[in-house]
Amino acid sequence: MRLILLGAPGAGKGTQAAYICQKYGIPQISTGDMLRAAVKAGTPLGLEAKKVMDAGALVSDDIIIGLVKERIAQPDCTKGFLFDGFPRTIPQADAMKAAGVKLDIVLEIDVPDEAIVERMSGRRVHVASGRTYHVKYNPPKVAGKDDVTGEDLIQRDDDKEDTVKKRLAVYQSQTRPLVDYYSQWAATGDANAPKYRKISGLGSVEEITARALQALD
Ligand code: AP5
Ligand code: ZN
C-alpha cells in the first residue's frame, strides 16, 4: 500500500498515520518529522529549515524532493509507505509522477479552519518518535510524558497562534490545489492515477481511524 494523507495543518495526519501504518505494516514518511529531526541534530539543512518552519512557510521543493527520493529508496519502503505532509505543492506532486512513483490512494482528511487553532494550541509531541498528543482530546497517560518512553513531551515552535494562521494560509494557496490535482487525475480513469477518497476529520480520534481504515479498504 502506497498512500498520501492530505489535509491542512492540524487535520490529524500524524495522529491517523500511526494507526494506518501499524495496520498495513508500512513506514510513515513525514517530511515535517524529517525536518524536525534535522533541526534537532543541528545539520546545515536543519539550521536553514528552522527559519522557514518557524515562519510558517514551506521549505524549497528541491530539498524536499531530494529527501523523499532518498527515503523511498530505503529497503523498508519496498512493501509500501505513507506520505504525511508530502507532497504539498504541485511541483512536488509532479516530481513523483515524473519519477514513476506509483501511488494507490490519496486520502484527504477534511477539517474546517475553526477547529484547527484549538487542536494546535493543545498539541504536545514526543520529538524522537513523532508521537502526538492533545492535552484535552488525546491526552498522554501521564501529563507531559510520552506513553511509550516516559520522556518529556514538547510544544512545537510553529504552533503559536500567528504561525498557525500563516500555515493555514500557505495550505490554502500552495497545498489545497492538490485536491483538484489528484481528484481530477483519478476521474480520468488513468491506470497510473491513485484513487481519491475524502473523509471528515471531525469527531474522536477513534471515529476518524475507523473512517480512514474503511476508506482504504
Ligand atoms: P508538518 O509537520 O507536515 O506540519 P503540518 O502539515 O502543518 O501538519 P501538522 O503536523 O501540524 O498536523 P497533522 O495533520 O499531522 O495533525 P496532528 O495529527 O499532529 O510540517 C511542518 C513544517 O515543515 C511546514 O510548515 C513546512 O515549513 C515544513 N514542511 C514539511 N513538509 C514539507 C513539504 N513537503 N514541503 C515543504 N515544506 C514542508 O494533530 C494536531 C493536534 O490535534 C494534535 O494535538 C492531536 O492530538 C489533535 N487531534 C488529532 N485528531 C483529533 C481529533 N479527532 N479531535 C481532536 N483533536 C485531535
Ligand atoms: Zn503532522
TrEMBL record:
Pathway where it operates: Purine metabolism; AMP biosynthesis via salvage pathway; AMP from ADP: step 1/1
E.C. no: 2.7.4.3
Domain Adenylate kinase active site lid residue range list: 123-158
Entry keyword set: ATP-binding, Cytoplasm, Kinase, Nucleotide biosynthesis, Nucleotide-binding, Transferase
Binding site for ATP: 10-15, 123, 132-133, 203
Chain segments carrying region NMP: 30-59
Region (LID): 122-159
Reaction equation(s) it catalyzes: AMP + ATP = 2 ADP
Assembly and binders: Monomer.
Similarity section: Belongs to the adenylate kinase family.
Name by which UniProt lists this protein: Adenylate kinase
Chain's gene name: adk
